[in-house]
Amino acid sequence: MLQTPPTRFAYLGPEGTFAEAALSTAVGPDQGVRQPAASVPAALAAVRTGEADAALVPLENSVEGSVPATMDGLADGDPLLITREVFLSVSFVLAVRPGTPAADVRSVVSHPHALAQTARTVATWLPGVPALPASSTAAAARAVAEGEHDAAVCAPIAAERYGLVPLAEDVADHPGAVTRFVLVTPPGALPAPTGNDKTSLVAVVGDRTGALLDLLSEFAVRGISLTRIESRPTRERLGVYSFSLDCEGHVADARVGEALAALHRVCDDVRFLGSYARADGRTNRPVPDVAADAAFTDAHAWLTRLRTGQV
Ligand SMILES: O=C(O)C(=O)Cc1ccccc1
Hints:
The protein has about 300 residues and is of the alpha/beta class. It has helices at about 20-25, 40-50, 70-75, 110-125, 135-145, 155-160, 210-220, 255-265, 295-305, and strands spanning about 10, 35, 55-60, 65, 80-90, 90-95, 110, 130-135, 150-155, 165-170, 180-185, 195-205, 225-235, 240-250, 270-275. Strands 1, 2, 3, 4, 5 and 11 form a 6-stranded mixed β-sheet that branches. A 5-stranded mixed β-sheet has the order 8-7-9-6-10, with helices on both faces. Strands 13-14-12-15 form a 4-stranded antiparallel β-sheet, sandwiched between helices. Helix 1 (about 20-25) links the parallel strand 1 and strand 2 (about 35). It is elongated. It binds 3-phenylpyruvic acid. The site of 3-phenylpyruvic acid has 14 residues, from helix 1, strand 3, helix 4 and helix 5. GO terms for molecular function: prephenate dehydratase activity.
């Protein structure tokens, strides 16, 4: 009997990242094969080349905002599909090799988002010590274990994994920070609508007055709320931007499908990034009767009658 091979999950590695913890939350601790990737672009590339079936990457944080490598990695290159979102509370330790006093620390290293969320607290422990970027919090812990740097801001589990000890625990300038991760796959079947879904896309608007308002109007007139919108440079030339946004609803919902079709007409480019179950613990706003699927079905049936002489 043929056995289905286990799903291969790439994640922002090495072992001990918050992305790995988010993957365990998303698919269960023992599901599939885990493939740590050296960076977000490497994790996405593994899916695009077929080396992995899915990738778990950080998308945005409640303190620092979006993760540019993920936003740009999804907006450019071969299309990928977000099939899940996962929210994780992040709590950091300031970790050193055993026996290192604070006075001997010459450098502190971590993922830029972790450094940004802890800068003030770290400075109280290590005044004047330069903070350096690493590809992930666990890569930072590993670099400290290998003697490349002296202190890392990382997850407690990463400190343990790389044999470090905490100089300080619960290190946070803004307690309660939450990071949103996404599971991305190659294009294929969409997750079925759950009734509480989100849709993500990237739209490039034309260089003309009112172009962004036109984009927003297509959502507003169909009773669709946005949950995130931000601009990113297209990297073509200064002044040309794309808008990365999430809205409530599933592309299978008539109002969302019609809004996307309208964007296809009014925007220079639209990239659909997926429809998936909303997981931030909130419920989509009630859909007005005039924007419900039944209202669209009824309106289309009416139009068909007009066009076929059944007035
Ligand atoms: O580096 C990690 O562990 C990540 O998963 C990225 C990250 C960094 C800082 C906060 C949350 C996620």
